[in-house]
Amino acid sequence: MLTGAMLIARFDPRADADCLRACHQISLAAHDVDSAQHPPWSYRIFERAWVDGFGQDEVHECWLASGDTGDPVGCYLLMLPERENKTVAYCELMVTPARRRAGSGTALLAHCADRARAAARTRLRAFVLDDTAGTRFAKVMGASGGIEQVLRTMPVDASLPDRLAALRADAQPHASGYDMLSWALPSPSDHLAQLAGLHEVMADAPRDAGIEPTAWDADRITNMEQAIMATGAKYYTVVAQQVATGEFAAITQMAVDPQVPDWGAQQITAVRPEHRGHRLGLLVKIAMLDLLADHEPAVRHIVTGNAGENQHMIAINELLGYRITQTSRSWELDLTS
Ligand SMILES: CC(C)(COP(=O)(O)OP(=O)(O)OC[C@H]1O[C@@H](n2cnc3c(N)ncnc32)[C@H](O)[C@@H]1OP(=O)(O)O)[C@@H](O)C(=O)NCCC(=O)NCCS
To answer: Which of 228, 299, 302, 316 has its CA 20 to 30 A from that of 112?
Structure first.
């Protein structure tokens, strides 16, 4: 499709590495402008996200916009979930910094909204960093912002082992009757059902109005793990197991991309409601930091994201030494008006 002097063309991210690399380059340039304090996604992580969202049940459309000399101007990924939130479309949309403020973002968004409507979606959502061009653009386009998500980072430095030892000594007496288990992907098959149960606990975390939580089962865990392993990322799990029942009470997971070995990326942390009050959220995180020191000694920083109103998780993160580095939120466009 031609929009002004711009050609917007769909490509298959599994088959067209040139187009996908062009989109990755745009994302790196955009990242430098908006979020230089955090590491960008390496190509293999970006590739997996654009191909299928790490094994999630969603249809993906990838579109690249080129100028009249064929140079990449912008792109978008449209994600159409097929299990939950079937009236919602999600997008990642960006314009390369050198080509901004010329109407390309507006044209790409109109194109993306048409594709979302064609897939019977009534809401188009995008995750946008606060205080960036994306926020100003989203407001002008008539979108409404959701709840604040806060990114925090913590340094992994020489003082950490002593701080962790003191925190553990304080917390451990509250957690008798639990053992810690840990492993790297793939998860043992006899743990999958319990892992799915722990992922379901994430439904308790604050989220935007009208958004359904993900429903997890063992197959979905397996699909996600296979997609993560295909990126070459290292992915570690720590679980607190109740000794008397064998039940998994709490979990935390951490990813390390070998292309960015000095950064850890915190994934989910959850404690089953009936096991709360035993400091298990803190203790699984401390066990994870010990595991990282042994298996990923190059890690110097860890990044985590929480809803701004998730007070219990934030209190744990602040104790560990995380400090705010950026805020963000999802923006939603009503496609029916
Ligand atoms: C957001 C983004 C896609 C906008 O691309 P763009 O090609 O510059 O967008 P447009 O030229 O169509 O801008 C349309 C209007 O949005 C507003 N806008 C866009 N960028 C702005 C900025 N930096 N400051 C203030 N207003 C801005 C303006 O009102 C602009 O109209 P104007 O230039 O006539 O004043 C681009 O900045 C980007 O890729 N950002 C990083 C990725 C991102 O945040 N994506 C979220 C998209 S929902």
So the answer is: 228
**SS3 assignment, position 122:** coil
Topology agreement, domain 2-142 and domain 151-328: yes
With CA atoms as reference, report the closest residue to 328 among 207, 196, 147, 204.
147
CATH fold for the domain made of 2-142: Aminopeptidase (3.40.630)
pLDDT range class, residue 323, cuts 50, 70, 90 = very high
Pocket of ligand 1 (CB under 6 A): 30, 34, 93-95, 100-106, 126, 128, 132-134, 136-138, 140
Question: Of the residues 76, 101, 130, 331, which should be mutated to test ligand 1's pocket, given the most ligand atoms within 8 Å of the CB?
Answer: 101
Structure tokens at 157: 């430095």
Contact (Cβ atoms closer than 8 angstroms) between residue 269 and residue 252: yes
pLDDT score for 3 = 55
What are the boundaries of each domain within the chain? 2-142, 151-328
pLDDT of residue 309: 83
Ligand 1 atom closest to the CA of 34, numbered from 1: 41
Whether pTM > 0.90 for this model: the answer is yes
